[in-house]
Amino acid sequence: MSKELDSLLKEERIFKPSSEIVENSNIKKWMAKYGIQSYEELLEKAGKNPEWFWDELAQELGWFKEYTDILKWDPPHAEWFLNGKFNITHNALDRHVNGSKKDKIAYIWEGEDGEIKKLTYHELQKEVNKFANALKELGVKKGDTVSIYLPMILELPIAMLACAKIGAVHSVVFSGFWAKAFQERINDAKSKVAITTDGFTRRGKLLPLKENVDEILKNTPSIKNLIVVKHSGIDVEMQEGRDLWWHKITKNMSEECKTEVLDSEDPLFILYTSGTTGKPKGVMHVHGGYAVGVYATLKFVFDLKEDDIWWCAADIGWVTGHSYIVYAPLLLGATSIIYEGTPDYPDPGRLWRMVENYGVTVFYTAPTTIRMFMKFGEKWPKQHDLSSLRLLGSVGEPINPEAWIWYYKHIGGEKCPIMDTWWQTETGMHLITPLPISDLKPGSAVRPFPTVKADIFDDEGKSVKEKGGHLVIKSPWPSMFRTLYRDPQRYIDAYWSTFENIYLSGDVGRIDEDGYFWIQGRSDDVLKVAGHRISTAEVESALVSYKGVAEAAVVGKPDEIKGEEIAAFVVLKEGNTPSEDFKNKLKYHVRTEIGPIATPKYLNFVEDLPKTRSGKIMRRVIKAKVKGEDVGDITTLANPEAVDGLDRAL
Fold first, then answer.
1. d(CA 85, CA 64)
2. H/E segment holding residue 39
3. What is the rounded average pLDDT for all residues in the chain?
4. Dist CA 506 CA 489 (whole Å)
5. Region for residue 575 given its phi and psi (left: phi exceeds 0; alpha: psi -120 to 50; beta: otherwise)
6. 19-87+285-482+490-521 and 546-649, same CATH topology
7. What is the H or E stretch that residue 180 is in?
8. 0.90 cut: is pTM over it?
9. Is 506 exposed, middle or buried (0-12, 13-18, 19+ CB in 10 A)?
């Protein structure tokens, strides 16, 4: 068996940003301060002296007490901005309210039903202070963990910022998860206080969150109080002595609250990420380094200016929302959009209508969402004026070149560079990403962010070029997670033991002749066909590049001779009809795009693919179906009916 991952897909198109975008970019102006002339020179200078680079950016934030050292690196443990006194909420709110941004809009919130709320920085600070005081009255203190299970409503960032303000640690659980996931995470974190809502709507359907939480709280002995946001207005039972209404406990609270002076390395949040096996991993981030990392990346990658309207269309329940809806935009003093509903409700024009209505200038979403809109067709974005857009972004998984081109053409009007960012819950910030001064290749995350030393290793730990392998990071970065909560050995075993003192991302990728990185998916999403190791992402990308195909998922089907055969499930764009002829042409297309070895033996047309409520395709479910195994728990699926569709296709 080859030790390397076969890299079959080639992409040679190059897109250059306009001179106007380059010359006006934050990174270009920042480089000019230090006499740096080019992108290459920036990467070289920052790579040789990373402490200089991060020190300069840290100085743009507010410190209660200056740090004495920038970095202590004792692999695999890092400390950044040692002995510095800091609080992320002070930087996100207090310093803006005390400065020129007091009356600037921080958040524009839109509900699925069209309701709109706006909060200025001062109004947001007052709400945060009132809730922080309420938490203190309940006995929450520095170091305590508060578990939060809320949809995309304003109380979610308010609760997070309030926890950070008083030195408590927040643990947010995505509201689309089954309540059992909330129970597991409460018990692991030993939270005394939990926060939820009465209910919320999804596609017009009411989902009763509080009712579900009541069931699991019977098995969470550490919880003393449940705070409930009145959002949907449905009747809920309130257990006396335990349950408290948010609006009642904050009503008479002071709008002033002292911000806790914390150490740079004090914990900010735990965010649980599902491991491939075993219990979820509690990824721990801290105040100082995390703040500097997300601040720098949003400033330079997405180039936010004073008058920009920023929309990261993710969910705050994921790290994308933590970093680029809550913390980084507020650190920069930006105006952000928060949307409660689903992207295609009540029709596939919803997001583009909002871009037009609010004059969104920078937009960040997932490839899954882009492919969904490809399926609906360009008629929907064509109905709206998207000319306010200046930059676009992609996050969450590799974006295939055809989705990239569609996004660039139909959303960006062929004028908006796409920042295709690679990073993880564990990294906290973008690690491999274009900048607005980079030449772009559709489907490539371009180069590592300044100071980040990334590489591709084979199984022996040797660096490989133009071949697929393990994506690794060889240097520390400020917003790196510090450990796994209450599981420090797993932190070492899972991430740092395969290659000594080098971070193993769990993703596979390759580096091309220009040093550009191509992410090929998770290492456990690799097919082993007749001695070749092939990335599912490359086969899926080839399928989606065929005219009429909207989405594809590829898994391995066990085969006695080849080890595995490729099984593909394909969703067609509107107006296309499945047929044997279409199937044969599609197989031939893959064969000519990336070679005979990658041609799917099994190709099935389906109306939809099973997805989580965050839009990720659940390949685990598809694999189980192909192998004739039990699919397990599918309660977190957004579309469980898609599982029945797999049965009909097989």
1. 5
2. helix 39-48
3. 93
4. 17
5. left
6. no
7. helix 179-189
8. no
9. middle
